Amino acid sequence: MLINVFFAMAETALTESHKSRLEKMVDDNVPDAKAALELYEAPELAFVVVQIGITLVSILMGVATSVLLTPVVGQYISFVPYHEWVALLASIVVVTYFTLLLSEFLPNSIAMRHPEQTLINCQGTLRTLVKITRPFTAILETSASFFLSFFGINLKYEDVVTEDEVKDLIEQGTEDGTFEKTEQDLVDRVFHMSDQTAYSLMTPRTQMMWLDINDSLQHNLDLIKNSSEYIIPVGRDSLDEFCGVIYTKDLLNAALNNESLELEPFIRKPMFIPRSMETFRVLEQFKESGIHEAVVLDEYGGVIGFITLQDILIELIGDTNNVNEQEQLQIVPKDDNEWYVEGMCSIDDFKEKFDIDELPEEEQDYYQTMGGFVTSLFGYIPKKGEKVEWDDFTFEISRLDKYRVDKIICTRKVEEPATEEPT
Questions:
Q1: How far apart are the first and last CA of the chain?
Q2: What is the rounded average pLDDT for all residues in the chain?
Q3: Distance (Å, rounded) from C-alpha 315 to C-alpha 330?
Q4: Fold category of 198-323 in CATH
Q5: 255-275 b/e with 16+ CB inside 10 Å = b?
Q6: Percent of the chain predicted with pLDDT > 90
């Protein structure tokens, strides 16, 4: 039974230890921590030895129960009918109870509380057993690989940490008080942002505030004065003939120095990126180039949007605008089970509001806003007052901006509780 205790603790230590903690113990010069880390990084043979040990001990305990313990118990209950079978059953129950308690439950509980230290304590014996049983484990490993190959299963152990596992650990740490709620939210935002592209974070072309170099200087200065943007795209007649961007701080410096405010000398060349570029790749481009804004192009080279470092930071930490700069609410209650939804409302905000997992064809990146989603449901440019249904929602076009859906009335069906008919 003591042998089984060792193998049970070793198995739990191998499965519950964390590589980062073992590495820290190595850095702290904890004795035998390096050997334990090496065993953790290549645990295949150790697991085989543990399983062999547990199996052999179980067989020996079964033999001992039937050969040694059962006759002894049988002597004390010889007056009972079928006492041999009763003695065997009683022996099995007693041995099973103490085996589970002393050889499984208690060792596992101890090892789970201090898995890394337990692994350090067990690693010497485990490594010795691995060397002794190497010929036998090699035969087992070869046989297992042969049989598993028929099912296309690779016997090699792979320690892969998934995104969901990290989220679960952070959530558990937050509940235990190890992490702050703000830290958990930040990690969730990082994982969410890793799935986003430049297209999903950009300001769409239809919403871009831009300057026409052919307009009068006073007109453009008025636009800059009334805008809160500090980086403004510049085009010639349209954004199809893109000139560059202007930093408002450059104009401010020129004004303070009584210099000319003609726009062309202040135009800077921005970065151009495809719509499919991942957000973290965009962030790397900003860091490497020192340019913190980019024009987003479609597959034909046309301008479809504009993205800045601020857009990425807002996605990461949330909007930091002050009270006077807060955007208009995009989902506003209208009546019971009815809401006004802005056409530019993000589909992510809509899904979060109504607890929706996924919208149809969302993965194809056909749309990023509710206006685009509703238009895709119609299959054509809808007219004011037209309605379309999806799932338990009804969407009615409330307002159009030329050909763009500007505002939607969203109604959600609610199942009425069944009423009993009068008898």
A1: 70
A2: 81
A3: 17
A4: CBS-domain (3.10.580)
A5: eeeeeebebeebbeebbebeb
A6: 12
Q: Is 68 exposed, middle or buried (0-12, 13-18, 19+ CB in 10 A)?
A: exposed
Residue 410, pLDDT score:
93
| pLDDT the model gives residue 369 | 86
Rounded to an integer, the average pLDDT of 215-243 is 87
Query: Which residue is listed with tokens 């006077």?
Result: 324
Residue type (1 letter), 26: V
H or E stretch at 274: strand 271-274
State the Cα torsion 304-308-310-313 to the nearest 10°.
80
Looking only at the bridges linking them, the beta strands covering 293-297 and 271-274 are parallel
- In whole angstroms, how far apart are CA 293 and each of 172, 282, 380? 38, 9, 33
Cα three-residue angle 163-164-166, rounded to 5 degrees: 65
Band of the pLDDT at 157, cuts 50, 70, 90? low
409/386 Cα distance (integer angstroms): 10
68 or 282, which is more confident? 282
| 8 A C-beta contact, residue 388 and residue 398 | no
pLDDT confidence of residue 272: 93
Element containing residue 415 per DSSP (H, E): none
Q: 324 pLDDT exceeds 70?
A: no
Predicted local distance difference test score (pLDDT) of residue 326: 42
State the DSSP string of 344-381: T-BHHHHHHHHT-S--TTGGGT--SBHHHHHHHHHTS-
Banded pLDDT at 66 (limits 50, 70, 90): low
Q: Which is nearest to 144 in space by CA: 57, 233, 52, 72?
A: 52
Whole-number Å distance between alpha carbons of 296 and 177: 42
Domain ranges of the chain: 2-149, 163-194, 198-323, 328-412
**Distance of alpha carbon 40 from the chain centroid:** 26
Quick check: 418 pLDDT over 60? no
Residue 39's φ and ψ, nearest 5 degrees, are: -65, -40
Tell me yes or no: is domain 328-412 CATH 3.30.465.10: yes
Weakest-pLDDT range from 135-139, 177-181, 243-247, 327-331? 327-331
**What is the helix (H) or strand (E) element at residue 80, kind and residue range?**
none
Q: Report the sign of the C-alpha dihedral through residues 225, 228, 230, 235, in that order.
A: negative
Q: Which residues of 126-143 are buried (b: 16+ CB within 10 A; e: fewer)?
A: bbebbeebeeebeeeeee
The helix, strand and coil proportions of the chain, stated in percent and rounded to the nearest 5, come to 55, 15, 30
